[in-house]
Amino acid sequence: MANLIDKVIGIMGFSDEEPEVDILEENEREKSSQEEVRSNRKNAQVVSIHSQKQMRVVVMEPTSFEEAQNIADQLKSRRPVIVNLENAEKMLAKRIVDFISGTTYALNGNMQKVGNGIFLFVPTNVDISGEMRDELKEKGLFWQK
User: Fold this and answer.
1) What angle do CA 43, 44, 48 make, to 5 degrees?
2) What is the structure's pLDDT at 144?
3) What is the DSSP letter of 112?
4) What domains can you pick out in the chain, each with its CATH number?
5) Neighbours of 86 (CB within 10 A)
6) Contact (Cβ atoms closer than 8 angstroms) between residue 78 and residue 125
7) Contacts of 136 (CB under 8 A, 6+ apart)
8) What's residue 145's pLDDT?
9) Residue 8: in which H helix or E strand, if any?
10) Predicted local confidence at residue 115, as pLDDT
11) Beta strands, E only, 8-102
């Protein structure tokens, strides 16, 4: 028991004597930890950091309001969608744009009018370049605030 108390006092740094360290025991611990690291490396999975996932842009031309849900599903799957409403009725086009705009807002995405009746809806993982937007604004393709 006295030996245990002496060790505790030695570990805490209150003893006058240097604690005895078995050099062979310490070397064996280092070797076993190195072997564990090597065995963990052999079982590790190799992942390529430089691989890029190909982005798919979906182009849709809805003819009924029911197709708006399919567009929303594409956005939920984190795919950008170009919606062509040039040939749709005016009221239908407005309802679809309103629905998809709400979906885009809920997903923290962005929306841009690209042409007359053509809209680009993108999820949060896609950024729309500002240069093209400024160029289109000069041509009068965007709503003026």
Assistant:
1) 145
2) 46
3) E
4) 58-138 (3.30.110.150)
5) 10
6) yes
7) 114, 142
8) 39
9) helix 2-12
10) 85
11) 58-60, 81-84
